[in-house]
Design goal:
The radius of gyration is 36 Å and the shape is elongated. Helix 3 crosses helix 5, helix 5 crosses helix 6 and helix 7 runs antiparallel to helix 22. With 610 residues, the protein is α/β, with parallel strands linked by helices.
Length: 610
């Protein structure tokens, strides 16, 4: 029979000593208030709430943070002080004889930098209004870097001059909206003139010149970038990495690289290097998971008849299918290997299609109703060589149709133009490189960590400037192109009907000479004298600050990418127009910091404030 513990028969009276005292008190409250046990529940609850002792709980205060408002000329002049501070710090790096800037790090060694956008991003000013102005110039540098990859210092200096001259006119009572319209119209005119005068990149000499100038007149870096682009082509990708040695080298990765290794180590053919090597390989590309024997037996029979190696790229190969491949591999019946498909989700499908197009294979996709069991031998792709390591696979293929590859590259470029995601831009660029040319890895070496960081930033600027030059062409460097453009403005300004719009054009005319003047000043010569000489010369002529000569800049290799000049001009005009039309600035009031040992009631109230 079922045994029941004796404690189960204990009456309720014997449990009274187990009830906590607070519960006994709560049970007595209704009787103390004259309420019977049969009274409604709401009446009992009300009595209990009334009987509760009042607590001295401190109430929380909720209020919005205070704001500081600054208006009119005071707001604009304070912002200009912040703009001047940032532009002065960035401007010292401009030109071939520009200096470096030291950036303090919270951890590690300080950085010695010559890159404008890196310096701008590191600057935060104490005064919130001044900092707002600095952040606007930082936006100019950032946008120029994102679109062109170089020219950030020029854009920052140009924006400062536009704002300075524009605020002088606004303070004297001119309409900032009309001034902005005049600047915008003039900018559009100058962009058209840039496109008219720009010259296409003609050969390796132009590429080397662009890269050298952007890297701070470093011919070694220029030659390195030139060699890398010749190997991977204009659609290739240049990757910059740190080297463990003191030397800087360029390694070109041939073929299509996939970040997936062999599924089973039993596929290894070179035991010494632990890699799989196969030549004249047939390739199966599918998004299906292969597990059953019946899925692969028909295809394996066809491979055996033709006596050729086989590489399977599938979502996964497991179970009986994998066992069949391994057994036949070990017995010498088949020379076969399998890897998992790269990527995830929709990106996986896109990468598999890229592989199929490059190898001339038919993409065996579930969405199309295709299966591996019914795949014909002619549907397989072809690769000249395949090398599979533990975590990556390299496919060197020549079988792809060049027209199909070109169409695929054009399609990916259209996707690249329509995306704003930095991650998507990187991945799409890699796909273009793998399809069209390849990937060149520049391994940067230096004696110290400080020099390494500076050298990597210089090479990054040189790489971006080179691709920008290949894309849109080149113009004279050294700020000469902007000086020559300023001489075209009076003729255009005469076509503007509104007087204040003509004033906006005049402001742009005066500001465009600032980069050339600053390059000359950093080289130790009188900037205004240089600007005057350059303005009287032809389009190709300008001042070479490195040799201290006036010469044909295009012939001597002092050139800038047209895209860099255009992006800097447009971004500077855009931000300058926003600053000129600013009438009020709202900033947060700096919070008071408590000193150690302060225990007053007012400070406690501040701590409780949300």
């Amino acid at each position: 029979s079922l045994t029941v513990p004796s404690s189960a028969y204990t009456d309720n009276a014997s449990l009274s000593h187990r009830v906590p005292p607070i519960m006994q008190t709560m049970q007595k409250i209704p009787a103390a208030c004259g309420i019977t046990q049969n009274a409604p529940l709401t009446q009992k609850l009300k009595a209990r709430q009334t009987a509760r002792p009042a607590t001295n709980r401190r109430s929380l205060k909720c209020r919005a943070e205070a704001k500081n408002i600054m208006l009119d000329n005071q707001a604009r002049s304070t912002m200009l002080r912040g703009i001047d501070k940032l532009a002065d710090a960035v401007g010292v790096t401009l030109g071939p004889r520009g200096r470096n800037v030291v950036l303090e790090n919270n951890f590690g060694m300080p950085q010695v930098i010559n890159d404008g956008v890196t310096i701008a991003r590191a600057i935060e000013l104490l005064d919130p209004v001044e900092n707002a102005g600095a952040q606007l110039i930082k936006e100019v540098a950032g946008k120029t870097n994102d679109s062109a990859g170089d020219g950030t210092t020029t854009a920052s200096v140009l924006a400062r001059e536009l704002i300075k001259f524009g605020l002088q006119s606004v303070t004297s009572g001119r309409n900032p909206v009309s001034i902005k319209k005049g600047m915008d119209k003039t900018c559009a005119f100058l962009v058209e003139k840039l496109a008219e005068y720009a010259q296409p990149v003609k050969g390796s000499a132009d590429i080397k010149a662009v890269a050298s100038i952007s890297a701070g007149n470093d011919d070694e870096i220029g030659q390195m970038i030139c060699d890398a682009i010749e190997k991977v082509g204009p659609d290739g990708v240049l990757s910059i990495e740190s080297s463990s040695s003191l030397e800087t080298t360029v390694d070109v990765e041939e073929g299509l690289e996939i970040d997936r290794g062999y599924i089973s180590p039993q596929f290894i053919t070179n035991q010494e290097k632990s890699i799989v090597e196969m030549e004249n390989v047939r390739i199966l590309v599918t998004d299906q998971k292969l597990q059953a024997i019946k899925d692969i037996i028909p295809l394996l029979e066809k491979i055996t008849k033709n006596s050729c190696p086989l590489l399977i790229i599938a979502e996964d190969v497991a179970g009986e299918a994998l066992a069949t491949l391994v057994v036949n591999k070990l017995r010498g019946v088949l020379n076969v290997a399998a890897i998992k498909a790269p990527g995830f989700g929709e990106r996986r499908k896109a990468l598999l299609q890229d592989i199929a197009i490059m190898t001339g294979a038919e993409y065996v996709a579930t969405d199309l109703g295709l299966t591996v069991a019914t795949t014909e031998f002619e549907s397989l792709g072809m690769a000249r060589k395949v090398v599979i390591e533990n975590n990556k696979t390299t496919i060197i293929a020549d079988a792809g149709n060049k027209e199909d590859v070109a169409m695929r590259v054009a399609q990916i470029k259209r996707e690249l133009e329509n995306t704003d995601s930095v991650y998507d831009v990187q991945k799409l660029s890699e796909r273009i490189a793998k399809l069209s040319g390849g990937v060149a890895v520049i391994k940067v070496g230096a004696a110290t960590e400080t020099e390494l960081e500076d050298r990597k930033l210089r090479i990054e600027d040189a790489k971006n400037a080179t691709f920008a030059a290949v894309e849109e062409g080149i113009v004279p460097g050294g700020g000469a192109a902007l000086v020559h453009l300023s001489k075209m403005i009076p003729e255009f300004a005469a076509t503007l009907k509104d007087e204040e719009e003509r004033l906006g054009a005049s402001i742009l005319e005066k500001a465009l000479v600032a980069p050339c003047r600053l390059i000359a000043s950093n080289a130790g010569v009188e900037g205004d004298v240089i600007v005057d000489k350059v303005s009287k010369s032809e389009w190709r002529m300008g001042y070479n600050a490195m040799t201290d000569k006036f010469e044909d800049l295009l012939a001597s290799g002092v050139i800038d990418p047209k895209k860099v000049t255009r992006s800097g001009l447009q971004n500077a005009v855009s931000v300058a127009g926003m600053v000129l039309t600013t009438q009020a600035i709202v900033t947060e009031v700096p919070k008071r910091k408590m000193r150690p040992g302060m225990n007053g009631s007012q400070d406690m109230d501040d701590m409780m404030t949300m």
